[in-house]
Amino acid sequence: MAGEVLDALCWRGPASVNVFVIGSGNAPLPEEAFRLAGMVPDAFLSFPLLEQPEAVERLGLVSYDLDFHDVSLDLREYTRAALRRVCADTRAVAWAAFEGTFLYDELLTEPVAHQVYGYCVTGAEPVVEWDIAVLRSDEWRLGIAKARAALEALLSGSE
Fold it and tell me: Burial letters for 96-113: b for 16+ Cβ neighbours within 10 Å, e otherwise?
């Protein structure tokens, strides 16, 4: 069912799209950068995450909370546009995941693959899934593993 991810994004009221990006530095993009796909978040919060491991801190890790009151909007397309935007100007890896699922030791790993509903690597098109059953599939875990491999390459400084 395509609405399952949207239902999970609305657990606290408005739909909250949570995007993380490693590689764009620790200075968040301005709110205006997230006026995407004809949509504007009703609430915008951005911040570099605290206590970053050294390899992450060198590249920067920023979190964006993008809230929408109108859940009839195409938030799947918005998530795709947001991932594309945060990866646009630098070599980066970004992902969208459910709120409260972030742990440095588990970034884009198999145990959290079902909690990630979108990912992007600079130079590739973002992948966004809105069906919980797909997020639990072997195919999705394989895609997350590829994003994790790109993240590991980025963190190690290899091209």
Answer: bbbeeebeeeebbeeebb
Rounded to two decimals, the pTM is 0.93
Provide DSSP, 58-108.
Answer: HH-EEEEEEEES-TTS-HHHHHHHHHHHHTTTSS-EEEEE-TT---GGGTT
Residue with tokens 């997350």: 144
Residue range 98-156, pLDDT digits in tens: 977 788 889 999 999 999 999 999 999 999 999 999 999 999 999 999 999 999 999 99
| DSSP for residue 154 | H
Q: Is 134 exposed, middle or buried (0-12, 13-18, 19+ CB in 10 A)?
A: middle
Structure tokens at 39: 């949509």
For residue 4, the SS3 value is helix
Distance in angstroms (rounded) separating the CA atoms of residues 157 and 54: 13
